[in-house]
Amino acid sequence: MEALATFLSNDWLDDMMNVGANFINCHLDFNRHAHITNCLWMDVLRSQRLQDSTYCFHEKSSLDNTIQSGLLSIIDIPVNLGNHWTCLWLDILPRTVAYMDNLNPSVTPSPEMFRLLMCYC
Fold first, then answer.
1. By its UniProt entry, which InterPro entries does this protein fall under (predicted)?
2. pTM of the full predicted structure?
3. Which position among 16, 41, 53, 65 has the lowest Cβ density within 10 Å, counted as fewest Cβ atoms?
4. How many C-beta atoms lie closer than 10 Å to residue 12's C-beta?
5. Pairing state between β 74-80 and 34-36
6. Do 78 and 69 form a contact (C-beta atoms < 8 A)?
7. Cross-strand pairs, 88
8. CA 108 to CA 30: how far, in whole Å?
9. What is the mean pLDDT of each run of 10 residues along the chain (121 residues)?
10. How many CB atoms are closer than 10 A to CB 17?
11. What does the DSSP assignment read for 8-60?
């Protein structure tokens, strides 16, 4: 019964998105320059920013290290807005952010999302 409640609540979607992202990341070419983040990555950045308003790379993750080494230049970030999924695409070298929302193609990332991502450019 608990499994049915979880399924009906949409709480499982984050897990499925993360499993899919991990699968894709693991099966990409070894020399890839792109990475799909965990769908909670923006929430982690937001939380760290709340703890320190000048946050940029406190405890470096393996993703941080890969970015700083120059091996990674594109980050795809799935974002759950509660009722639908969107995607942020960060191209580090030219400092470009693209936001994809299939329900509203003309929408842009929020200023908060943009500020959080600029720590990586």
1. Papain-like_cys_pep_sf
2. 0.73
3. 53
4. 12
5. parallel
6. no
7. 77, 99
8. 32
9. 62 80 81 84 79 59 78 88 85 88 86 80 64
10. 17
11. HHTTHHHHHHHHHHHHHHHHS-TT--EEEPPTTHHHHHHHHHHH-TT-S-SS-
